Amino acid sequence: MYLFMEVYMIKYIGVFDNKIDLFEGQYIVKNGISYNSYLILDDKIVITDTVDINYYQEWLNNIKKELGNKLPDYLLISHMEPDHSASILKLIEIYPNITLILNNQALNMLKNFYPGVAFNNLLLVKDNDTLSLGNNTLKFLFAPMVHWPEVMFTYLEEEKILFSADAFGRFGKLDNEDNELDEYRRYYIGIVGKYGMQVTNALKKVSTYDIKKILPLHGPIVENDKLNLLLNEYTKWASYNTTNGVTIVYSSVYGGTKAAAEKLAKLFNKEYKIFDLARCDIHQAIAYAFEYKNLVIASMTYNNGLFPHTESFLHSLAERGYKNHHISIIENGTWGPQVNKLIKAYFENNLKDNLILNKSCKILSRLDDRSNKELEDIALEINND
Ligand code: FEO
Questions:
Q1: CA 246 to ligand 1 centroid distance, Å
Q2: Closest CA to 187 of 34, 12, 19
Q3: Are the C-beta atoms of residues 159 and 212 closer than 8 Å to each other?
Q4: Which of 32, 235, 255, 307 is the most exposed place for a label (fewest CB within 10 A)?
Q5: What CA–CA distance (Å, rounded) separates 174 from 167?
Q6: How many Å apart are CA 60 and CA 67, to the nearest integer?
Q7: With contact defined as beta carbons under 8 Å apart, do 32 and 172 qualify?
Q8: 326 bridge partner residues
């Protein structure tokens, strides 16, 4: 098993899902995802959260291996999304006297997920409540909408460890991943990008605590250099601040729009990422669109409207509360380009906290002298932005 903790009193009992293809039915997870769960061993024994139902037996085996004949006193429920709550009944079947620690919102969800089941041993907690385990104390810190309304963090006071529910998690392996920050960002923007204000509130709340390690429900422990890095990145992402760079997204059928997007990219004197909306990991494109200040949208006209991938991308930005970005548009159409007008209207109606820059490019099938010049003008405007 992955050796997770130096702290003698905390044991990792989570599982790794390497069969999953799409997390939450949409996010590509090529390298799998962990469902983290821990044992806190004190005079009282706590299990933190459960795991996806497909892995309950492995998880129960992990518990049994660590506990032997000892009995756990509490199951801490941080979050009721089924990747963490689906094995609650499986645990109660083995340990019928275990007490569930949860808040009122989580209790309502528990009843919804397990209709007709009577849960007799409940410890209902309020924000800032504490619970002594003997030598150590748990403090419950509600973090609504990070990622669901019932979410609560738990601070283990003496060890200065924050159990952070979904926050500070990521997709992929429990050890180092390539492009790790990309994966943290893709996860964050994907699941809580819309809830920047609530994440900011949660960050403010925990900023008053001395935190040595963060134990999220997915991905590795966050500690040492990564702790400060992620606290800073979360602060930036939650406040919709951007970094200097350009994201270019394009939809192209016969290559004309693609050629323009690729040509423009070569004219930038700053960092950029380019995405083919029909073929890329769309959530990576969305995450970069949040990260970089400038966004270029290049699309052909289709059925007198937006190409479906372009429209879907815009919708994904709008549903996550995209703001504070500068937008440039490249439109293409053989006889009647409509995209510039349609994208502007979309931003006006759904994404109004962004700025459409002055320069744009119109292509009539293929780049020519006029449209090449327009690309250069876009590049100049963005490079000076
Ligand atoms: Fe990992 Fe929101 O559940």
A1: 30
A2: 34
A3: yes
A4: 255
A5: 15
A6: 10
A7: yes
A8: 294, 355
- Sequence letter at residue 45: I
pLDDT values of the chain reduced to their tens digit, one per residue, 385 residues: 444 444 569 999 999 999 999 999 999 999 999 999 999 999 999 999 999 999 999 999 999 999 999 999 999 999 999 999 999 999 999 999 999 999 999 999 999 999 999 999 999 999 999 999 999 999 999 999 999 999 999 999 999 999 999 999 999 999 877 889 999 999 999 999 999 999 999 999 999 999 999 999 999 999 999 999 999 999 999 999 999 999 999 999 999 999 999 999 999 999 999 999 999 999 999 999 999 999 999 999 999 899 999 999 999 999 999 999 999 999 999 998 999 999 999 999 999 999 999 999 999 999 999 999 999 999 999 999 9
**What distance in angstroms lies between residue 43's CA and the mean position of ligand 1's atoms?**
29
- Please count the other Cβ atoms lying within 10 Å of the Cβ belonging to residue 131: 17
Q: 170 CB under 6 A from ligand 1?
A: no
Give the closest residue to 103 by CA, choosing from 82, 120, 83, 78. Answer: 78
231: tokens are 């606290």
| Ligand 1 atom at shortest distance from the alpha carbon of 217 | 1
166 lines ligand 1 (CB under 6 A): yes
Find the Cα–Cα–Cα–Cα dihedral 271, 273, 274, 276, rounded to 10°. -170
Question: Would you say the CB of residue 147 lies under 6 angstroms from ligand 1?
Answer: yes
Tell the residue nearest (CA) to atom 3 of ligand 1.
81
Distance CA 195, CA 193 (A): 6
* Of the candidates 326, 8, 364, the residue with the CA atom closest to the CA atom of residue 156: 8
218 lines ligand 1 (CB under 6 A): yes
Q: Which atom of ligand 1 has the smallest separation from the CA of 218?
A: 1
Q: How far, in Å, from the CA of 266 to the mean position of ligand 1?
A: 39
Report CA(156)–ligand 1 centroid distance (Å): 21
* Spatial contact of 168 and 216, defined as CB atoms under 8 Å apart: yes
CA of 17 to the centre of ligand 1 (A): 14
Which ligand 1 atom lies nearest to the CA of residue 35?
A: 1
pTM recorded for the entire structure: 0.94
- Say if ligand 1 is within 6 A of residue 320 CB: no
